[in-house]
Q: What sequence folds into this?
């Protein structure tokens, strides 16, 4: 991290977290943040669900909800980026304050509630985006929707023509009863409808499923069974958690989803278990608590074909992306792996 980046983060941390979030997006969009461009080597370049990635380090959904800074983020060193979540109609989300830094824990709690400008506005921005790395959209449902399953299909129909992949998000804890869609029957029906919509696109794209870290063993087994039977292309493990185990920061009691460092162990155990349940037949993307190259490498060895991060940038800045990609390349070389794919799942037993 440069002195300039350190000073910028210090200034942002003096502001309300949501205000700082918005300002960081504006700075990116205005070209005020130095960007390294693509970070890749023959060892880092990989393919996940048919997507060619220059490196396996992606941006998790939730940072750029409205595709405001997508062009800049695609030049920030990520191997792929995920935008949104998008809902069919614009919605303001939950009342403020709804974003909290847990500095002592290197964590974040949010209860945004799918605040976004709506699928049509987001699709217009995506339509004008030169996609230099794969770009995905996180599919959400309106809070007051009578048929939430239909909302996922609607967003895919609107945004699908302008992205490289789409993620079905039934694991956010901030929309009431949304996680109930992870049940076996509901999830099967939901994914069938989404894939039917995908088949109607002029250019069908990979569809991912994002799961919660708070599933029981039986629930995880059910989701794995549905995921394998459905025909989806990958699973993202995991979203934020409702657990507050071991936290010390003053905002630890706030409602919402917890992300950041405390999530790492929990999400990696779920990732490894899901990898075992699916026997490597479905690509997995590991997300939750990654703040270093060592942690990204641990996710890959636990079963992930690629990884995503977001919360760690609140504390370590955007340069963290390049640091992780370069560090991951060095770790793969150290252990004799010629590619990311060779390392996937080689340390899974350590997390079971």
A:
């Amino acid at each position: 991290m440069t002195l300039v980046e350190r000073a910028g983060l210090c200034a942002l941390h003096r502001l309300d977290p949501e205000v700082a979030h918005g300002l960081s997006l504006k700075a990116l969009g205005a070209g005020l943040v130095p960007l390294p461009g693509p970070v890749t080597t023959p060892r880092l370049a990989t393919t996940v669900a048919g997507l060619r990635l220059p490196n396996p380090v992606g941006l998790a959904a939730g940072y750029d909800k409205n595709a405001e800074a997508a062009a800049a983020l695609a030049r920030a060193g990520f191997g792929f980026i995920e935008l949104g979540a998008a809902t069919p109609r614009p919605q303001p989300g939950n009342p403020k304050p709804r974003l909290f830094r847990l500095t002592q824990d290197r964590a974040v709690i949010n209860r945004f509630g799918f605040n976004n400008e709506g699928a049509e506005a987001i699709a217009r921005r995506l339509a004008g985006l030169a996609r230099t790395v794969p770009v995905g959209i996180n599919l959400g449902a309106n809070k007051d929707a009578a048929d939430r399953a239909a909302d996922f299909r609607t967003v895919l129909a609107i945004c699908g023509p302008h992205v490289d992949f789409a993620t079905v998000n039934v694991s956010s804890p901030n929309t009431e009863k949304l996680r109930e869609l992870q049940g076996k029957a509901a999830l099967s029906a939901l994914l069938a409808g989404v894939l039917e919509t995908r088949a109607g696109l002029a250019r069908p794209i990979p569809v991912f499923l994002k799961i919660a870290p708070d599933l029981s063993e039986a629930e995880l087994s059910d989701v794995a069974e549905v995921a394998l039977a459905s025909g989806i292309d990958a699973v993202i493990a995991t979203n934020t958690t409702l657990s507050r185990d071991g936290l010390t920061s003053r905002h630890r009691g706030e409602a919402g989803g917890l992300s950041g460092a405390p999530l790492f162990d929990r999400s990696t155990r779920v990732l490894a278990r899901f990898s075992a349940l699916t026997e490597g037949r479905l690509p997995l993307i590991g997300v939750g608590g990654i703040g270093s190259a060592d942690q990204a490498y641990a996710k890959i060895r636990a079963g992930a074909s690629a990884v995503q991060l977001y919360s760690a940038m609140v504390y370590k800045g955007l340069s963290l992306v390049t640091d992780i990609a370069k560090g991951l390349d060095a770790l793969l070389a150290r252990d004799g792996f010629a590619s990311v794919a060779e390392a996937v799942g080689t340390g899974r037993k350590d997390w079971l």
Notes: The radius of gyration is 18 Å.
